[in-house]
Amino acid sequence: MDVSAPEQSVLSGAPTGVGPLPVYRYVVAEKRIVADPAQAAAVERLQALWTKLRHYDPPARLARKSLIGRFLRRKPVDEAPGSEINGLYLVGEVGRGKSMLMDMFFETSDVPRRRRIHFHAFMQEAHARVFAWKQANPGGDDPIPPLADRIADEAILLCFDEFQINDIADAILLGRLFEALFERGVIVVATSNTVPDDLFRGQPGRDAFLPFIAVLKRHLDVLVLEAQQDYRRLRPNTDDTWHVPPGPQSRAKLDAAFAELSRNATVKPEQLHVMGRVLPVPQAAAGVARFSFPELCARNLGAGDYLAIATHFQAVILDDIPLLTPDNHNEARRFINLIDNLYDHRVKLIASAAAMPDQLYPTGDGAKAFERTASRLMEMRTEAYFALAHLT
Ligand SMILES: Nc1ncnc2c1ncn2[C@@H]1O[C@H](COP(=O)(O)OP(=O)(O)OP(=O)(O)O)[C@@H](O)[C@H]1O
Ligand SMILES: [Mg+2]
Hints:
By secondary structure, this protein is of the alpha/beta class. The chain contains 15 helices and 11 strands. Keywords: ATP-binding, Nucleotide-binding.
């Protein structure tokens, strides 16, 4: 269980400067991944976008900054003439290889200003920037144009992993922000488990969100990846990371894992600072944190807290994950969020739980999203996952 073993990239030795399709063919030929026709078709679309981006010339900054230029551009979206495609929205079931393909595209892209970011993190940053702008410009009218300018200046290619809309504040900000980004010629590639038409479905205020869905569909090619299987489940699992059920035996295993991962360093409480608040970490040692499930998921913590944990700690020990019922949908939502962040940053997880991941939250609000969590938890139990380096 060595968490500092070097990562062997699946792309190492692959051809460079030729785009994602030759890279995909190479890793298949090398038998590092299984050939999958649906993935191959998706990579062809990514290759086409890659080729287009070689000679990509976004709208001139000057033209869009001038008052008259802006006025002329301000057409209602519905009347926008034969609108330009600004990228690809890759959607599909869990573990189909969406993030892998997007990363191949991103790694091979030669666009100098490009950024790959988890969508949660992007939204948090956007809200923080709006907040800061309002502080600096009291009484200022509209934070969206300067925010879009800044984002477009930083990156003309944005790759979003895990595109999803969870709350109304995101929904409100996104509609205008994306319109402004597309107007500035920003290219977006996104992965998601949800087709655009189902985003934010069943949530209060969804009607106000519909124009954004229209914007997304107009500017992004939606590609459904119907790959053959959840590839996370192909790999053998170890049985020393997920201990069922909680109790003295599991606790002793988690104690031992904590000591091994932290190389017997002294355990102390720590504090993380998250957006002006303090997040207590009851037990921490040498980059490893230990929490009980209620400490992390039964309190009012959010994406920012989980992100801070995921970037700060290379391993997390989590005691006593219970069976979750429909009444526990808030705990389930937080747990989904926690695991998304841990997985995204390759944080190693050792847990005790009332059941295997697939049986933890069978029904209730968000049970569908939990399928991704279960798939991730299965991958997080593999040796291959343990060999990955922590991403801070
Ligand atoms: N063709 C393949 N052969 C073998 N392994 C694969 C293949 N495609 C993907 N994988 C592996 O399966 C795992 C899941 O892939 P990935 O993370 O890209 O899925 P995803 O579609 O983004 O899932 P999610 O919706 O949960 O984010 C990764 O470890 C990836 O390397
Ligand atoms: Mg993914």
